[in-house]
Specification:
With 202 residues, the chain is an alpha+beta fold. It is built from 1 helix and 8 strands. Strand 3 and strand 4 form a beta hairpin. The N and C termini lie far apart (171 Å).
Amino acid sequence: MKTHAVIRWTTAVVAAALVVGGATACNSDTGTADTAGSSPPVVTVTETAPVTATSPATDTTPETVAPTESAAPTVTATRPVVTEQPTSEPSSTHPLADYYGYWRGHGRQLTLNPNGTATVVLADGAEDVENWTADWGSAGDGIRITLVTMTNRHGPPLGYSSGQSFTGSIQPSEEDGVTVLHMLNFGDWCSARFGNSRTCGA
């Protein structure tokens, strides 16, 4: 079956060649060349390449990474240790507690309370009297008493004023050696704990 097909195909090719050759010879006799029949037809085979699906373009731009911010170091400040001297104790040999209580002088009375308040009675004779509230506390080697408010007065003013201060300390009397509260410009004051001195009057 295949052999007969080959024979027929060969015969057809030969016949076609004869026809073309005859046509060319015929045209040469007339002096005109048949351009269309001078060469066999050209068959152009176009091969279509398979379409390959392309993947989407990949962005190769390097990603910008923000720099990592380092945490600031923690600095712990050390507060220097300050040793403060207590302000409630005088620097003399007598502690502040020795000043507590009732003190007296000629026509004078003084009461020093542990809470820093005081009462003062000042007199000039038997008729002229002033009553004061006061504050007090340690000062240097002794204490300071500050008049605050006059709560009562009988007779003419004695010359004292609010805010006026007096400093003093417990020490032996110069007259007889008895321990007294000696106040600068405010006289000497005696306490029953230490005895009576002539400087305190009757």
